[in-house]
Design a protein that fits this description.
The chain is an all-alpha fold and about 90 residues long. The chain is built from five helices and no strands. The chain is elongated and about 55 Å long. It holds the Pfam family TraD.
Length: about 90
């Protein structure tokens, strides 16, 4: 019972730093989900150096003159992938 009460209190904690930490944690989990959804974990045999290298390469491209082209291309591909996967999503409870 004590653990449940502690968990409920922690969930309801509205202090600014706690709320910001919770939001950041959620963002990081969602971004990790995108890495998984893209298939990068399986395609790289869960090699984090390779995955990080891919992200560093993408960041370098976003710092280049081709930024707008890259963003548009990646946005279109991402939108198409989300639309393709949409029927497979299960409804949230």
């Amino acid at each position: 019972m004590r653990n449940r009460r502690s968990a409920r209190i922690a969930r309801d904690d509205k202090r600014d730093w706690v709320v910001k930490r919770r939001e950041r944690t959620r963002q990081l989990i969602e971004l990790g989900g995108l890495v998984a959804k893209a298939g990068l974990i399986e395609l790289t045999d869960d090699d984090r150096a390779v995955i990080f290298g891919l992200l560093v390469d993408a960041a370098a491209r976003l710092r280049s003159e081709d930024r707008d082209k890259a963003l548009l291309l990646w946005w279109r591909r991402g939108k198409r992938a989300f639309d393709t996967l949409a029927p497979e999503r299960e409804p949230r409870a």
